[in-house]
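Margin note: ligand = 1,3-dihydroxyacetonephosphate.
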Amino acid sequence: MTHHNSKRFFIGGNWKMNGTREAATLLANELVTAFEPLAMSVDAAIFPPFPYLQHIGGILRGSGLMLGAQQVSADANGAFTGQVSAEMLLDIGVEIVIIGHSECRQLLAESDELIGEKVAIAVSTGLSVMLCVGETWQERQAGHTEAVCRRQISAALKGIHLDHMGAIHIAYEPIWAIGTGRSASPQDAALSHASLRKDIEDLYDPSLAAATRILYGGSVNPANATSLFAQPEIQGALVGGASLKAADFASILRSASQATSSRPN
Ligand code: 13P
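Resulting structure:
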């Protein structure tokens, strides 16, 4: 099988439940322009709200910027009011989907088991996955960060065959760092990434673990991106708030491009 190149950074813009059709259109157009000189060196996706997906997909076409969705059902079809299936996402041009975001784990009470089912149906349908894991502040204070992440990643990847792992990216998003302006330090993030990589190694094998891209998420902004990306364990970022400003997201993309070129092959 072909593993993706883990040296290449992956930057995701999770727009969450923000914006209007007009604002989303403007932002997507600005990002297409900003991404043009970077498309050869960085992988990137944006995750607009569901109602704008198809429209934004049209704007992104041919730009290299991937279209992502923020959520997917664990079921294939049927009487699931309000849910959206993996097949539907694929059908309208979505390439990647966020699964296990802490906001969904907490606000929608998504369990580890449900998240595992979502990952399974997404990859078997042909979508790539941005799988989010991360601990609360309380769990960190209690020294449980690595155990919590291990539990989450093991459940999420349960039953996922090695051949599908090339389609899965991990986003380490410590919950206390999300939307707080208080990013994890590059060192703390790197420790968690290394521990997650060890978990993947235990679940699969060392070469797959080495090839899997692990992104950091939680208050990433233009000012802290460069120091985060200087950590070899970090292969990208999942950006919330700063992804809503074209100039900020473009700056983070440029930091990733520069970090890529300074890494050994
Ligand atoms: P912020 O960048 O706003 O902290 O959000 C991070 C996040 O949750 C991305 O999925």
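The chain is about 40% helix and 15% strand.
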